[in-house]
Specification:
By secondary structure, the chain is an all-alpha fold. Helix content is 83%, strand content 0%.
């Protein structure tokens, strides 16, 4: 009998569709995990919208305090902690002065302003009815109430006076802690990023900080110029409540586009409540202040920071205001600026990497010729 050698059987079976060893299943599982992760992240953002906005607001406060500390360092070569303390003292003195001034004049003027606005709405409704437009004063008041009620349905508590004050205090406290040691928190965020990405992260954060400091500095400059300019010019023309209108204009100057519309409506309402001549003068003051801000301050800030399209800023303000209330409305512009910087950095990095990959191919093709 001849020896017969038995050949080993080759296992030709392939992994089933339920086994993770299948490359196709692994690829699809990764795609599904990405989509599930994105959906979970969006759900968390919606659920945690208010605390996330408070954290972003704290970062904005920290950037402003850090900018003041750096600016003071060019004049006083002292330790950073002392410079930060001086900045905090100046800010506290400013708020104390505003509160003291408000107790003397602005509280009474605010009550009078509400009466004037209500009277002008009633007058507008009567004039509309005389012109054949079916709109009563009650309809206009209801429309205004719906517009303001639509801002911040998800964060109604924040839009109240007590909620706004509490949120502002929390943002200030968080901003102070971050401004004390910003590098500590930056290193903590970088620790969660892979080593190969940390250099890009540090460079991006440095550019964001540089841009935000100048953006907020320009915004504060615009607030001061618009506030004092409106107050001075309105007082020069004997327009009533000039101090209150100047304060409101200065505060609303932090909100591009929407802030100017609201302050302009209040200025014209108060001006025309006295007479047409005063109303036209108030209109001239408003236009003069906005022309200075739009042709001098805004281009100067955009040149040294990031140029944002007005339509993009307005759309972001409407979206953030409708979703997150007054805090979202105030933080829409800085958030869009940060997103734009990050996207531009990422696109530039991708272009550089693609250029580096194409460079060896280009050199080899040239060597053939």
């Amino acid at each position: 009998m001849s020896d017969q050698t038995t050949e080993p059987k080759v296992n030709k079976e392939q992994p089933g569709p339920t086994e993770l060893r299948d490359p196709l299943l692994q690829q699809e599982a990764k795609k599904a995990a990405i989509w599930i992760g994105m959906a979970a992240a969006l759900a968390l953002i919606v659920l945690l919208a208010q605390p996330l906005l408070l954290i972003v607001g704290g970062l904005i406060v920290a950037v402003m305090l850090d900018g003041g500390t750096r600016l003071l360092g060019k004049v006083l070569p002292i330790a950073r902690g002392f410079r930060l303390a001086l900045v905090l003292l100046v800010v506290a003195a400013f708020f104390v002065g505003v509160v003291f001034f408000a107790n003397l004049q602005i509280v009474q003027q605010w009550a009078k302003l509400q009466i004037i606005v209500a009277q002008q709405i009633d007058l507008l409704g009567i004039q509309a009815a005389d012109a054949g437009i079916m709109a009563t004063p009650g309809d206009l008041k209801e429309l205004g109430g719906r517009i303001f009620a639509s801002l911040g349905q998800l964060t109604a508590a924040v839009t109240s006076v007590l909620g706004a004050v509490t949120s502002f205090v929390l943002m200030c406290v968080l901003g102070i802690f971050i401004a004390m040691e910003p590098k500590l928190y930056e290193r903590g965020m970088a620790w969660m990023i892979p080593m190969g990405q940390r250099t890009f992260f540090y460079e991006t954060m440095s550019q964001i900080g540089y841009t935000m400091r100048r953006l907020l500095a320009g915004r504060l400059l615009g607030m001061v110029i618009e506030g004092f300019g409106t107050w001075f010019l309105l007082a020069l023309g004997n327009v009533q409540m000039a101090a209150l209108l100047g304060l409101i204009t200065g505060l609303l100057a932090f909100l591009p586009n929407i802030g100017a519309i609201i302050s302009g409506a209040l200025i014209l309402t108060v001006g025309f409540s006295t007479g047409y001549e005063t109303g036209l003068y108030a209109l001239g003051v408003y236009l003069a202040v906005q022309i200075v801000d739009g042709n001098i301050i805004v281009p100067m800030v955009a040149k040294k920071t990031v140029d944002l399209a007005p339509a993009l800023v307005l759309a972001a303000q409407l979206l953030f205001g409708a979703l997150f209330g007054i805090i979202g409305l105030a933080l829409a512009d800085p958030i869009i600026a940060v997103i734009k910087i990050a996207l531009e950095r990422g696109a530039r990095r991708s272009a550089d990497e693609a250029q580096d990959k194409d460079a060896p191919k280009t050199r080899s093709m040239l060597m053939r010729f």
